[in-house]
Design goal:
The complex is a heterodimer of chains A (about 425) and B (about 100). By secondary structure, chain A is of the alpha+beta class. Chain A is built from eleven helices and 19 strands. Chain A is about 30% helix and about 25% strand. Chain B has a single domain, classed as Folate-binding fold, CATH 3.30.2270. Helices cover about 10% and strands about 35% of the residues of chain B. The chains are: A alpha+beta (about 425), B mainly beta (about 100).
Chain lengths: ~425, ~100
Amino acid sequence: MPWSLLKLGFNKQTPLTRHFPKRCELKPEYDVVIVGGGGHGLAAAYYLAKDWGITNVAVLEKGYLAGGNTARNTTIIRSNYLTQEGVRFYDESIRLFKDLSNEFDYNLMYSERGHLTLAHTDAAVRTARWRAEVNKHLGVDSEVVYPDEIARLCPQLNLNQDVRYPILAALYHPPGAIARHDGVAWGYARVATTRGVEIHTQTEVTGFDIINDRVVAVKTNRGNIKCGQVLQAVSGMSSVVAAMIGLKLPIKTIPLQACVTEPVKPFLDPIIVSGSLHVYVSQSARGELVMGASADPYPLYSTRSTLEFKEELMMHLLALFPFIGKLRVLRQWAGMVDMTPDFSPVMGLTPIGNYYIDAGWGTWGFKATPVSGKCMAETIATGKVPDLIKPFELERFYRFEQVGERGAASVGY
Amino acid sequence: MKLMHCPMNGPRNISEFVYGGEVVEMPEPDNCTDQEWADYIFMENNSKGVVYEWWMHVPTSYWFIAERNAETDEIVKTFPSAELFNQRVDFNVKKQ
C-alpha cells in the first residue's frame, strides 16, 4: 500500500463518511411518517426539518431510494404554464431550484438551457401567446418567437415550411433547465438525514390503523409504527395507498415512457418541446438525447416499454431533426404516472385529519420537487394549507374548479 | 403488436381502439347531490387488478366492454355492452 494512501487514510481531515446513514430498525413511533421515498417525499422531509425543526420523521420507501418516477422522468424544469395558479406555483419551484446545489453542497448538474415549445398550428400559436402573456404578467420570462429567432436559438431544427406541420412560432422560456434527477433526490435525502430524518428503504406500507378519523398507526412489512401525521407521496401508486384510508382520487395510473440515445458531442443547447408533434427532447450533460412523447393510451400498472412509443417518438423527432436518424437508442424505460382531469396536482388535506396527500403529478412532477416538498412540509407543520397550493386541493373537483393546465403540461393528448 | 378482440370486428391491433373509462353506474342526474355527481365525473377506482372498462373501436365507432387486468395488461374478455346493460334504465325526470 503506497505511503501517501496510508497517510490519507489516517488523516483526521479526511475522515471516512457515509453518503447516507446505515438503515436502522424502525422506531415504535414518529411525529411524521412519509409514505414514499421519491423526490417529493424526501423534499418534504428536508423542509420539515429545516423550516420547522421537525426531525422525528421517517420516510418509508417500498423499493430502492427514489426508484419510482423520480428515477424515470426526463428532468425538464420550467414555469411557462397556462394558469396564474400554475405559473406562481412552478415559478416558486424554479426559484428554489436555482440555489439548491449550493444549499445541498451537492452537484445537481442544474443547467439552464432555455426551453422552446414549438407551435405548428394556429391554435398552438394562440396557446403560446396566452402562456407568454400570463407568464409576463407574473414576472416569468417567456415570449413568443418566430422562425428567424428560433433558427438562432436552435440552428439544428428543421424550419422548412414545406412539411406537413411547419413550425410557425414558439414559446421561448429562457429559465427552462434540466438537472440530474437522481442528484435532486439524493441531495434532499442527504440533507434530510444529516438533520435526523430516518430513511427506510425496502419498507412497504401495507395499511393504516384509523381511530376516530385519525391515523394512529402505519402498518409496514417491517412492523407497525405509531404516527403523529402521515404524508402520502407515492405518485404511481397514489390510488392504491389512498384506498388504504378509504379515499378515492381523480387519478388514472398511466405508463409514461422515455428513452435515451447513445452519447454524442454536445449540439443541442435548448430543450425542445412540440405539442403538435407529441415529442420533447434535450441533450444531457452526458451527451445523450433524452426523449419523451405522449403518455400511454390506456391505464396500466406497469413500467413495460412498447414499440408504438418508439415509432411515434422517432417519426416526429426526425421531422424536427432529420440528421439524428443515425443515432442508436441506448435505453428505454417507463414510469407509472398519476393523470388527473385538469393536468394539475392533488395536494393538501384529506378527510382523515392527520393524513396529507401529495399526488396527481402526471407528467409534471419533477420540476415541482422543491416547491411541493416545501409546501407539504408547511401544511403538515401548521395544519393549514399554504395559499400557493390551495388551488390544488382535492376539494376543487367537488366545486368543479379545475386548474386546467393541459395546454401547458402536456404533449399530444 | 397487442391484440384486442373486438366483439363485432374480431381481433385487431389495440392501436385501433380508444379507452373510454371505467364501467361505473351513473347516478340519476336530476336526483343526485352535487357531491355524488362530482364523484361520478371525477373520482376513479383506478384499481390495480381486474377492471371493467369501456372501449371503442375507432374505425367503426363500436363501443363495448373489456374485462382487463390493469396490472398484467391481460385482456380477459371483451363483450357487447348489452350483456351488462340488459334492462332499460329509467330516470325519474324532475317535473318542470
